[in-house]
UniProtKB/TrEMBL annotation, chain A:
Name of the gene encoding the protein in the UniProt record: gerAB2
Gene3D superfamilies membership: Amino acid/polyamine transporter I (1.20.1740.10)
Organism name: Oceanobacillus indicireducens
Gene Ontology MF terms in the entry: transmembrane transporter activity
Annotated membrane topology: Multi-pass membrane protein
Annotated InterPro entries: Na/solute_symporter, Spore_GerAB
Protein's name in the database: Spore germination protein
TrEMBL record, chain B:
Residues that span the membrane, as ranges: none
Keyword tags: Germination, Lipoprotein, Membrane, Palmitate, Signal
Residue ranges constituting the Spore germination GerAC-like C-terminal domain according to the UniProt record: 200-379
InterPro entries registered for this protein in UniProt: GerAC_N, Spore_GerAC-like, Spore_GerAC-like_C, Spore_GerAC_C_sf
Similarity remark: Belongs to the GerABKC lipoprotein family.
Gene Ontology terms: biological process: spore germination
Domain Spore germination protein N-terminal: 23-191
Identification of the protein by name: Ger(X)C family spore germination protein
Membrane topology summary: Lipid-anchor
Annotated GO CC locations: membrane
Upper lineage: Bacteria, Bacillati, Bacillota, Bacilli, Bacillales
Amino acid sequence: MKINVQIPKGEQFRSFYMFFIIASMQLGVGLIGIPRIVFMEAGHDAWISILIAYLYIALLLFVMLYILRQYENADILGVQADLFGSFISKVLGTVYILYFIFYILSTLVTYIEIIMVFVLPDSNAFVLGCMLLIIAIYTVFGGLKAVVGVTFLFFMFSTWLFVLLIQPIRQMDFLNFLPVMDKEIIDILRGTIAASYTFTGFEILFFIYPFVANKEKIGKPVFLGLSYFTFVALLATNIAIGFLSPAQLERRIWAVLNLFKIQTSPIIERLDYVVIAEWMMVAMPKVILLMWCISYIAKRIYNLSRETSVYTSASILLILIPFFNEHFIIQRLIDNVSRVSYGIVYIYPFLLLPLVLLKKKTRKK
Amino acid sequence: MRTAKLIPLFILIVFLQACLETTQIEKLAIINSRGVDLIDEGGKRMIETTLIPYIFDPRAPDMTSLLTGKGRTIKQARVEAEKQSPYPLVPGKINIEFYGKEAAESGILPFLNTHVRDAPVSDIMQLAVTNQTAREILEIEQQSVELNRTKYLQDLISKEVEKGTLPRITLQFFTRLVQQVGIDPILPVIDVVNGKPTLTGAAVFQEDKYVGNISVKESFMANLLRQRLRGTPIDVGVPRENYLGEIDYKGKLTENEDSIYLSLMLHTGKGKIKIVDADSLAFKADITMKLDLLETSIPMNIKSEDTSRKFERDIEKYFVREYENLFAKLQEVNSDALGLGRKYITSRKGSKTTNKEWMEKYQDAKMEFDIDVTIVNFGAID
């Protein structure tokens, strides 16, 4: 396996789009649940937990970029091949594929569950999954440029959802935030860990990096993407804490949707239905980008054609979706995916860093 | 070639849509108002719901009808009521829900549970209490009201909420306050007066139990401590002997009255509760009101700024008295509708004060009211 990859000019894109890629990868169905998940651990100091998560991930992104910059134009698979040899790199690449498949699965089944609870209780998970996956398959067949384009457009088309938060913001009770630092520092850190599933997604940097045309400018959009998501997560969490009482927040599984339930307009009384439909644009870029990643890794390590890998992974997903039809099974899936992500996403780059430095030193000698 | 490959996907996505359920609005009965009562049937406590659904079917002679059903749970009672309806009853647009006296006094959280769990139910549904049974109110509404029948009760209340005389009474807000330690909710009371459903006052709760009645004015005063208000009509009485020089009219009608009654409009008003001393549970409320004078019960000539100041001081005295009465009343029924507990709890770091602990302390709480009134406008004459 080659360490550095040659990307034709036509397939490269400007670093500016990294902002949308990073932000869209982090946005998703996880955002709907984040206020409650963090609140359960950190209480009304949840915002501190989220800020800590932000700092940690900023450091992590810095390390990831540092590792990638040691090579001319490599992705994580190339770095691993350089460090551990071709075979281990293939094994690790397969781990990534499996992780991404389950990551997509957790995203899809959560979104389908929300649709079934809120809008269409009699619908079929398989049918909904099929419809969502067709969008993903179609986009991935268009190539990376189409994937990035869709990410950009979906991002733009879903930002108006902020406007619908005005009513809950006006009804916030700021006493809910007092007293500050009510919980122990350990609880706040536990809140940070609880937020990690929602924050994942930036690991795509490891795979998409070779495709960026002007790599020297990649830092800014990547960090801004992360900052944007952190801002959204903070906004959602703080509005939920101010708008809902602690007892309410502890029991609402999808607290962010509860915020939208209060907003009405003269034409549409129940805007939460619109929000759930619109949330597809928030959730799908993640699925599409991950699907692209799977096809990319499969091509790199097994030399599989895009058709084969996309259809295979989509079929696996479609077969699995109907099995995840109970709330607690879905929760267990999410828990397991986030547990794996602690290792793959949050710790692994730090383990990689000393090895990369060591390699660099020996190479110089 | 590539397009040919994608054609099956396109066909699939079009046809898959048929797999999703569809419901035709003409074939539904959409519940609009609901009443909940507790009844005794053979020694067992049962829930009785009275429903008013909309029917969109153009062949139906009437837009609304009245259905009742009994059951152990709200949903069961609805299914029971559905037996009288040719169309399925859907709860997605319940605008208002009533609780009969008995149901409200026993605690309404169990009835709300279903709404919170059932995601399609609207969070902005309004809640109200009646001193009769909910069934009576809805039956009388169906008979007596002709104008805008489907929204009559809803509008009756929501205009008061807009004016600020009632606090927010949505399902969302009620469940928020019920479960919040240190503040208790207020809901409107609608009773039948002269054969028509009428807003008669407000119900104060202790957690989810209806414990006492306050007037609409008192509900405004409680609301003022919760949020910034404007445009609320206010009536105040000031002692007559203070204004003998300014009275502009002599007549039999007003000769023997002790008070002059003023009609005012709240320009802007806000209130804030502060803790003076957490250990001795001393609280203080700072309330500022900017008012417009609209009417005096005896025509008056407000000649100078002094008169205006005199009015302001008397209005302040009036409200201090009213607030003290309200606070005493609330303490008596053990309801913290003003939200003193919230202030107390947020000032105690690391303590997990439960509602029960606060309610014991609440009895010993003392409250002072500091009211600052300014009359901004007197209309076109002085």
